[in-house]
Amino acid sequence: MNNKELINIIIPCLNEQENVINLAEQIVDKTKGLNYNFHIIFVDDGSTDNTWQNIQNLPFDNISGIKLSRNFGHQAAISAGINSTIDGNVILMDADLQDDPIYIPRFIKKWEEGSKIIIAKRTSRQENLFRRVVFALFFYIQSKLTSIDIPKNTGHFSFLDKEVVKQLQNFSESTKYISGNRAYVGYKTDFIDVVKKERMFGKPKMSFLKLFNLGINAIFNFSAKPLALIGFLGFLVSFGSILFSIFALYYKINFGRTLLGWNFGLSSIYFLSGIQLLSLSIIGKYVNTIFQEVKKRPEYIIESKI
User: Fold this and answer.
1) Has this prediction a pTM greater than 0.85?
2) The CATH fold of domain 6-223
């Protein structure tokens, strides 16, 4: 293996003015002595603080920056970084220092052993209980509804061989879910255990609404199971109503009274209306995904580079 192969470290940023300086210093320190060329790529996803200025002023010659014209989202920022690489392998990590650069040598060791994708698997999260429960629920729903095997308790922190990077650059959809695309390509995958640290500066940029939307994209981009669930639910409701009608008729003939009376009829109307609205919402999400794709708008717009 060429000891001077290139490894690009792609870091999406949104209002991380304190963290980019600290992170760059840590990466440079942790990669000293490793026989590879490291290229750090910061992608500023429409920051409103001094993130871009701090990236420009970083005192290292192996750093470049991409400034998007506005906030296009975490997934788009990662895509911008991946698409900017002409050659070389890639490490994906966030700028909040929860992805610790100390694990970079372990990524490389696994890659040298033959794996094409190495993913950081969280053994624990230094976060509050509510966020841990939300993430656990997200991974559970994702595993049940997606049609490909997306590893649990993992994020974007990972090492991607240059062959994988080339394949990811071929994904043309405008609404991406990088973890799903990474699993979709199907190369040999391995894991390293990591502890996800607490954020050093600032507040988390992935709000629960953004996390929810990301989870929705994960499900709808990689599965048609929600549509199948609608059909199954419709069958259950229809079959159940037939059985209840037969029983209600039997009850009326033998006891001369209406089963459950008028309230049941009203409740059933509300129930079926809810099922219809849920079904329309799920179908509408698929239609909206198609609508976004056929417009062929760019996933992101680059304002400037350094």
Assistant:
1) no
2) Spore Coat Polysaccharide Biosynthesis Protein SpsA; Chain A (3.90.550)
